[in-house]
Amino acid sequence: MGIDQPRITAQTLKVLAILMSRTQDEISGAEIARSTKLASGTLYPILFRLEEAEWVESHWETEDPHELGRPRRRFYRITGVGARKARAAVRDVAASFKEFAWR
Amino acid sequence: MALIASIGLFVLSILGAALSGILAKEIEAWSPSIVRGLIKLAVGRLPEKLRERFSEEWQSYVNDVPGVIGKVIEAARFLLAARRMAMIDRRDKEHEGWGQKVAELEGFRSTLVGVARSLDSVFAILGSEGIAVPNALKSDVDRLNQLMSEFKEKKDKLAELVSADPPNLVSKALNLRRRRRLLEEIDISSHVTIQKKADEIMKTLKLRRRNTRRH
ipTM score here? Predict the structure, then answer.
């Protein structure tokens, strides 16, 4: 895939912040939605865009859904590239705000 | 009169409470089907390759949402998510298509650069051997160089438009319109014409050189 860079909006930053703060954990879409307070209509296009750009990767939970008695969850995780680019994006945003504050 | 009104109000409130209770039970009973229906509808709007995954993922997402109404609302929001995701996918595909066009033009340009270099070297050889090049041929070569630089300029402009990331829908639409107009202006077959013309010039020059040597 490796499509062009995702647009960095306030909502995208919220999603990235959650994923960056829990790099060791497996975090599902519903958990991200709860933590960021984003609705599914906003969250999934962001996750899709981040995954297309290879900033984020996802995988199904390994347990059998029949044993779990519910549909399988899909877990998201930030990639090395994603973490690096997210930090750079945050620096850019912070720099713009600093510049704005001086005006 | 006031007594009748208050009795009426009392009866209405009992009826309302009973109805809302029934309605709540109905919604609760119907909610799994409503949620499934909404997810199915949303998934149907996604590109084919994403449907299977999100059909399962969104069911599990809704499963984690507390409350019947909450589940229905989130499922309804998937319709919006699906529309946006389909739009992103369409845009990505289009972007890839434009990228290929730019790469194709770059390939043509490299060919033309090769042609121009060959012509330059033939001119240099003729010059070193003191063979005069007819003015008509010189102007043909100038014309070729001009066409090549126009080709390059348009190709670079197109590449710039393709790599730009317009911030809003209006500028995106304008960017796309400019790309289409530019692509219409770039005559893809012109590189073939240029190459043919260059070959003709090259042949004429070689013939001239041979003839001059014989004499």
Answer: 0.85
